[in-house]
């Protein structure tokens, strides 16, 4: 009996939210607007509303989306939501686990599409461009993450792989693991990147030691370590461009 009551309440809330959406002029409803003017004409809130599909009692999907962007976007709109966890999202009234997962998957899909598009024109021979390519992905991380970028003979990205999470210490990271992955992907050269959660990209003694070990192993195996770039908060250091590289 209780289950039936709950189901009835949910149906009532969904119907009410749908009625709220239908009360909008036809040209302002996200679905109709997308059909007539294209997805690019939709605002951030309207795009979210299409994904969420339904709202909650007294709020349409569009009103719920606007509230999420205003209260949980942390002033950064969609970017703020991107950095929220599924657990954070489910704290929003009206967002259950399924909707939270949908939002996270759409955000990740968008990130991958953007990276794939951007990578076509990225020169991995230019440290500044490489740093920009990975900046947003790494600078917000709360722990150190070491990324291996593997390149072909033309300097294009074949694949990147997270090698380590936590403190990037030379004693904890094996060049063997790095080069097994590089050889598996037929890389001609590699670039290491990792972040400093402090925001200061100045290389630590551990960073220098790791770079020396990987460079030495690369010379033996014939896979050049092209650079080791450290990402800080909107700034980066290329070891290749430092005096250290000439040692």
Description:
There is one protein chain. With 247 residues, the chain is of the alpha+beta class. The protein has two domains: 2-116, no CATH class; 121-246, Cytidine Deaminase, domain 2, CATH 3.40.140.10. Helix content is 49%, strand content 14%. It contains ten helices and five strands; from the N terminus they run H-H-H-H-H-H-H-H-E-E-H-E-H-E-E. It has a five-stranded mixed β-sheet with strand order 2-1-3-4-5, with helices on both faces. Helix 3 (44-52) packs across helix 4 and helix 9 crosses helix 10 (205-221). The protein is elongated. The model is unreliable at 1-14 (pLDDT under 50).
pLDDT < 50 stretches: 1-14
Structural class by secondary-structure content: alpha+beta
Helical residue percent? Answer: 40-55%
Tally the helices: 10
> What is the 3D form?
elongated
Q: Output the helix-strand order.
A: HHHHHHHHEEHEHEE
Mean pLDDT: 81
Across the major sheet, the strand order is 2-1-3-4-5
CATH level-two architecture of the largest domain: 3-Layer(aba) Sandwich
CATH topology of the largest domain: Cytidine Deaminase, domain 2
How much of the sequence is in beta strands? Answer: 5-15%
Radius of gyration: 23 Å
Instruction: Determine the CATH superfamily of the largest domain.
Output: Cytidine Deaminase, domain 2
CATH class group of the largest domain: Alpha Beta
Largest sheet: 5 strands, mixed
Q: Termini separation (Å)?
A: 77 Å
Number of domains: 2
Instruction: Tell me how many strands there are.
Output: 5
């Amino acid at each position: 009996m209780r289950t039936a009551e709950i189901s009835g309440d949910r149906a009532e809330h969904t119907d009410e939210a749908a009625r709220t959406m239908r009360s909008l002029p036809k040209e302002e409803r996200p679905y109709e607007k997308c059909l007539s003017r294209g997805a690019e004409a939709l605002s951030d809130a309207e795009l979210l509303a299409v994904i969420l599909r339904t709202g909650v009692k007294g709020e349409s999907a569009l009103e719920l989306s606007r509230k999420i962007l205003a209260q949980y976007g942390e002033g950064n709109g969609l970017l703020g939501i991107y950095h929220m966890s599924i657990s954070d999202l489910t704290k929003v009234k009206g967002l259950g686990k399924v909707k939270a997962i949908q939002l996270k998957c759409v955000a990740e899909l968008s990130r991958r599409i953007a990276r794939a598009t951007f990578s076509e024109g990225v020169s991995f021979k230019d440290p500044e461009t490489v740093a920009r390519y990975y900046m947003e992905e790494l600078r917000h991380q709360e722990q150190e993450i070491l990324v291996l970028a593997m390149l072909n003979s033309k300097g294009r990205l074949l694949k990147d792989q997270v090698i380590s999470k936590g403190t990037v210490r030379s004693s904890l990271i094996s060049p063997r693991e790095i080069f097994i992955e590089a050889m598996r992907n037929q890389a001609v050269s590699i670039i290491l990147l990792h972040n400093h959660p402090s925001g200061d990209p100045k290389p630590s003694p551990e960073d220098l030691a790791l770079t020396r070990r990987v460079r030495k192993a690369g010379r033996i195996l014939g896979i050049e370590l092209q650079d080791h770039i450290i990402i800080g908060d909107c700034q980066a250091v290329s070891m290749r461009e430092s005096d250290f590289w000439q040692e």
